[in-house]
């Protein structure tokens, strides 16, 4: 008996043929998913048209009805370009005939055949309406609303006349019938176009909200990246200093007059360290250049109002609290809606302080973020009602790596970089940060930045 490897070696074409169905299935999966979505939309459209078709009036002695389903059908065909006009119209007509036949047979005294022949002309209406809607290319004219209303009305009128041909009316006054058909057709066309416009406006509103949320997330991400670039630059400078010191040590050992063998070995090690540090520095430089290139290609340093910055932070914080299931409340106040091009720095500073405040509050509490002006400075305050900070830690909390927080689940300490970020970013703008707190009484962080470094308009 041949094993799988032997079959593969002796009959490679057969193995390829056996693998073809798997590839075909994988390639068909996206198509099947799209078809399933389209079929679901078609089913929902037919169901909606069928149900709304039961809302109707009898203007001609209980022989001919005008329904709301036609306006719904027109709206759906205009809004959902994926819907096939003829398929949707015909299947809607069949579903309506079935529903009306069942309702009349259960509630009425006529025979099943009589009920079927009574409702069957409705199918002629929907078939004619689908054909006219398709032939008139109503979707192509939707940008011109009067023309769209005219074409939908014309399709409705023709379809009603076709239905009347198969459903003779035992009433007098053809002019009155024709006038009613025209009036109802125009009315239903206006309603359909109006509903279509409302759907488009709602869709635009949803897209705007989604775009605003994505913009807020992008702004937060860029702010964090810019803070990381700031520290990468700082680390790169530190590496440069260490490399210079290593090279100085190499020269010192080379020029010293002690034992040549020992000094030659030490000098070689110092030179090797300098070379290694130089390679590390080149990696840092490449990383910094790559991140800055991404930031420049994806965003621009356009100025923003403070109200817009605080709105972005508020949306991000509320989303974070909702994901945590935390009842902590947060409020934002500002006294001056100035314009600044340092919005990423402000986002980074306030976001880090707010995250620290949330962690300090624990399961419940309140946070307040406020902006005020003092002389030639802009002041930001972040207050919380959390566990507070012991005064002996005031001088340590801004040091990189210092932290008193740890994860109860993993037992790992926090990195202690958040407040160090805030301090360095604030000082890079020529500002300062201070803290006041007592254990169990919350904490207040105050960030003060010169107005000239933040505000770009003094109108």
Helices and strands, with pairings:
Blueprint: H1 4-10, H2 12-52, E1 56-57, E2 66-67, H3 69-79, H4 85-107, H5 112-119, H6 121-135, H7 145-166, H8 174-255, H9 260-298, E3 304-305, H10 306-324, E4 329-334, E5 339-340, H11 343-361, E6 366-374, E7 377-384, H12 418-428, E8 432-437, E9 443-450, H13 451-454
Parallel strand pairs: 4-6
Antiparallel strand pairs: 1-2, 3-5, 6-7, 7-9, 8-9
Helix pairs in contact: 2-3, 2-4, 3-8, 4-5, 4-6, 6-7, 7-8, 8-9, 8-10, 8-11, 10-11, 11-12
First-to-last CA distance: 90 Å
- Please state how the strands of the largest beta sheet are arranged side by side: 4-6-7-9-8
**What number of domains?**
3
Secondary-structure element order, as H and E? HHEEHHHHHHHEHEEHEEHEEH
Strand content: 5-15%
Radius of gyration (Å): 37 Å
Transmembrane segments: 41-58, 88-107, 119-138, 145-165, 177-197
Organism: Sporolituus thermophilus DSM 23256
InterPro entries: 2C_sensor_his_kinase, HATPase_C_sf, HATPase_dom, His_kinase_dom, Sig_transdc_His_kin-like_C
Keywords: Kinase, Membrane, Phosphoprotein, Transferase, Transmembrane, Transmembrane helix, Two-component regulatory system
Describe the fold and architecture.
This is histidine kinase. Keywords: Kinase, Membrane, Phosphoprotein, Transferase, Transmembrane, Transmembrane helix, Two-component regulatory system. It comes from Sporolituus thermophilus DSM 23256. InterPro entries: 2C_sensor_his_kinase, HATPase_C_sf, HATPase_dom, His_kinase_dom, Sig_transdc_His_kin-like_C. It is an enzyme of class 2 (transferase). This protein is of the alpha+beta class. The protein has 3 domains: 32-211, Arp2/3 complex 21 kDa subunit ARPC3 (Orthogonal Bundle); 219-298; 304-453, Heat Shock Protein 90. It has 13 helices and 9 strands. The strands form 3 sheets. A 5-stranded mixed beta sheet has the order 4-6-7-9-8. A two-stranded antiparallel sheet has the order 1-2. A hairpin with a 5-residue loop joins strand 8 and strand 9 (443-450). The protein starts with a helix and ends in a 5-residue tail after the last helix. Residues 409-413 have low confidence and may be disordered.
